[in-house]
TrEMBL record:
Organism: Paenibacillus mellifer
Biological process per Gene Ontology, one example term: sporulation resulting in formation of a cellular spore
Record's protein name: Sporulation protein YabP
Gene3D superfamilies named in the record: 2.60.40.2000
InterPro entries, sorted: Spore_YabP, Spore_YabP/YqfC, YabP_sf
Gene this protein is translated from: yabP
Amino acid sequence: MVEPNKAKHQELHLLNRKLLDISGVLNVESFDSEEFLLQTELGHLTIRGQNLHIKNLNLEQGLVSIEGTVNSLSYLDPGSNSSGKGLLGKLFR
């Protein structure tokens, strides 16, 4: 969970659409070879592509590296605070 006085911070680094490094990750909600759903400090982030897989995962430091062909990145609820309910809880309010 994000500390109240800690500033939210996130970096995305995409190299040649093949390697994506993300900081500020709180949880990996779901993933398969075509889509990842990550809970980040800045909202839920969806990554879509082909042959996606996790290269590195360190949730203690909030870091995730994903390999594959990245087609899109989109935030589902940018800037929202994580309430701990998860995505389904937010959908069925």
